[in-house]
Amino acid sequence: MIPSSRLTRRRATAAALAGAGALAAPAILRAQAPIELKVSHYLPPVHRLHTDVLEPWGKDLEQRTGGRVKVLLHAGNTAFGNINNQLDQVLAGVMDVALGLHGIPRGRFPRTGIIDMPFLTTSAEQASRILWTLYPELLKDEYRGVKVLSLFAHNPGVIHTRAQKVERMEDLKGLRIRAPSPVVSNMLAFLGATPVGMPPGQIYEALMAGTLDGYVLPWDPVHSFKLAEVTKFHLDIAAYTVSFYIVMNERRHQGLPEEVRAAVDALSGEAFLPRIVAAWNRADADGKAAAQARGNTITVASAEERARWRQALEPMIQEELARLEREGVTNARAIYARMRELAQA
Question: Using an 8 Å Cβ cutoff, are 239 and 118 in contact?
Answer without folding.
Answer: yes
